[in-house]
Amino acid sequence: MTGAGVPLPTFAAAEELERALGCPFDPGTGMSLAAGVRADDLEAEPVAAYEAAWAAGLHEHLVPVAEGGRMGSFESLLAVVRAASRREPAVPVGFGSTLLATAPVWIWGDDAQRHRVAELALGRAWGTAGISEEAAGSDLLATATRAVPTGDGFVLNGKKWLVGNGGRSSFATVLAASEPSFGLFLVDFEALGGAGVRRLPKVPTHGLRGHDLSGFVLED
User: Fold this and answer.
1) How many Å apart are CA 176 and CA 188, to the nearest integer?
2) Preceding peptide of 180 cis, ω within 30°
3) Which of 16, 51, 166, 191 is deepest in the core (most CB within 10 A)?
4) Is 75 in contact with 61 (CB distance < 8 Å)?
5) What gap in Å lies between CA 168 and CA 170, rounded to an integer?
6) 42: which strand partners?
7) Which residues of 132-171 are buried (b: 16+ CB within 10 A; e: fewer)?
8) How many CA atoms lie within 13 A of 145 on its CB side?
9) Strand partners for 161
């Protein structure tokens, strides 16, 4: 806070989110501490918490201001994420997986890609960063997924496993080997209508049991 009792610009969005979410000790709020514990005990997706986060505009902070969102700085984003994390950790982890999918598009994507990903993210769609693989783990040079160039794009084949939002994502940023080296490829699952994509089941975890940690297979 400033001396006049006004929140610093970096933390203004976090304070706004806190007010929108209500008291975390009130079991009647969508993202209460009690509801988070209950959902984790049941290994259930915290649907009410996600709805509360969307209603409070948390997803808007994943999209840069230039693309129609509210991400003005990393520090402001971090403050917002902290405010949500202390209530229900599965929520910011799910949104974080989307952030990992969108970040390469904000940095390297063309105008059409940036517009499409902004449209999806602002429309409450989940994204996934298809990087790790079962046989390779985080060894990027061992990536087995392949992208073969065609006349108007690429054909991808491979399996991405243990990735956040793997089963529920509407789009993905996928690491694949191509010529002359590796590349990151934007895959619009929603536009494909499910064609060429096989979802893998959620993996049980000791913590964050409501988070979608799973994978997917790309088949042509």
Assistant:
1) 15
2) yes
3) 166
4) no
5) 7
6) none
7) bbeebeeeeeebebebeeeeeeeebebbbbbbbbbbbbbb
8) 30
9) 215
The confidence score (pLDDT) of residue 7 equals: 56
Would you say 30 and 21 are in contact if contact means Cβ atoms under 8 Å apart?
yes
CA 171-176-182 angle, to 5 degrees, is 130
Residue 131 has pLDDT above 70, yes or no: yes
Q: How far apart are CA 49 and CA 84, in angstroms?
A: 10
For all residues of the chain together, what is the average pLDDT? 93
**Residue 21, CA atoms < 13 Å, CB-side half-sphere:** 30
More confident residue, 137 or 50: 50
Write down the residue that tokens 């699952």 correspond to.
189
Question: Does residue 19 register a pLDDT over 70?
Answer: yes
**E-assigned strand segments in the chain:** 127-130, 146-149, 154-164, 171-177, 182-187, 197-200, 213-218
Residue type, 133: E
Q: Report the pLDDT averaged over residues 93-100.
A: 97
Please, what's the b/e burial string for 47-71 (b: 16 or more CB within 10 A of its CB; e: otherwise)? Answer: ebbbebbeebbbbbbbbbeebebbb
Residue 110 CB neighbour total at 10 angstroms: 10
Tell which residue, 211, 99, 104, 120, has the closest CA to residue 164: 211
